[in-house]
Design brief:
The protein is an alpha/beta fold. About 35% of the residues lie in helices and about 20% in strands. The strands form two sheets. Strands 5-4-3-6-7 form a five-stranded mixed beta sheet. Strands 1-2 form a two-stranded antiparallel ribbon. The chain is globular, with a radius of gyration of 16 Å.
Length: about 150
Amino acid sequence: MKKVLFSALLLVATFANALNIGDSTPTFAINDQFEKAHTIAADTKTILVAADKDTSEILRDYFLTQEKGFLEANKAYYVADISGMPSLIAKFFALPKMKKYPFSILLVDENQTKEFTKKEGNITVYSVTNGKISDVKYIKNAEELAGLFK
């Protein structure tokens, strides 16, 4: 019984601070791979969150095929949760590779990661209307990703 209660409390705590429909977009600064601070703009339409390597690769591969400035033109942000990555791997391997990309990837830290809902093996898609979350859904592949921007 204690294990069930603990699991339930942990689940509630995990989602307690995550963005939900009706919430305002985050106002805190999030650094990108170039250590430049970004604040999610009020006119944002889409926030895409990758919580693991596979979903990050889907986003990366898709955005590499788009014209420079694609995210900005579509009022979208790509957020990657690398908080679980060992710091040495992030510093010496992941970040140098990310710095070669022609788009910004917002990298959430251990505290900021709680703000975003994540589902294993899925990209979280936040739709934003007038600075508020209007929808939260999950996609799994490049075809679904491309469908968001049609």
